[in-house]
From TrEMBL:
<dbReference type="InterPro" id="IPR003593">
    <property type="entry name" value="AAA+_ATPase"/>
</dbReference>
<dbReference type="InterPro" id="IPR017871">
    <property type="entry name" value="ABC_transporter-like_CS"/>
</dbReference>
<keyword id="KW-0547">Nucleotide-binding</keyword>
<dbReference type="GO" id="GO:0005524">
    <property type="term" value="F:ATP binding"/>
</dbReference>
<feature type="domain" description="ABC transporter">
    <location>
        <begin position="8"/>
        <end position="211"/>
    </location>
</feature>
<dbReference type="InterPro" id="IPR003439">
    <property type="entry name" value="ABC_transporter-like_ATP-bd"/>
</dbReference>
<comment type="similarity">
    <text>Belongs to the ABC transporter superfamily.</text>
</comment>
<dbReference type="Pfam" id="PF00005">
    <property type="entry name" value="ABC_tran"/>
</dbReference>
<keyword id="KW-0813">Transport</keyword>
<protein>
    <submittedName>
        <fullName>ABC transporter ATP-binding protein</fullName>
    </submittedName>
</protein>
<keyword id="KW-0067">ATP-binding</keyword>
<dbReference type="InterPro" id="IPR027417">
    <property type="entry name" value="P-loop_NTPase"/>
</dbReference>
Amino acid sequence: MSSHNHVVSVRDAERHFGGLRVFTELSLDVAAGQCCAIVGANGAGKSTLLRCVIGAERLDHGSITVDGDPVDESSPGFRAAVAAVVGDVEVFAHLTTHEHLQLVATAHGVPDPYGQASRVLEDVGLLDAADQLPVTMSSGQRRRLGLASAFVRPRRLLVLDEPEQHLDVGGRTWLADAIRDEKRAGTTVLLASHDAALVDCVADLTVDADSWR
């Protein structure tokens, strides 16, 4: 574990694309069981920071650690600790919703993949769609399936990029409850969101991306 129980630590982070500076001198710490919400306009750099945290992009300067270790997408320990829903979750076209979740659970060493997939489908409100192919699902259902892909596996850090997208009012209420459950379980949540009500409901600290540049 890192010092002070910080699961995520960002230090003097800088990222730019050509002459465009996305963020600079950005530092933040998020402890176990905390939710940090990143808010701000589209294009402010929220998604870029999340992609750097999960190792999909690299910083130009500075560092990010998870549990005290540098971000390394190739590390088995890092992959085991970090569950992310950033962009569309990739699914196998020929697998049903339930089979997809079983596969994710199996890949992460969950003891009872079938049972875990069933429980998570019920949790996310997709049990009726267990035998459906993801391609036949609505955008809201696919969003729930993406979240289910994170919930079906072990995790120390949950990274969510605008998880409220395509969810109706009931879905957003469910999402807030799910994030609070994650925090109670000791999971750290890093969240980018445009939903002020969701942020007010779940965030322990809020970072305004509009102030980064």
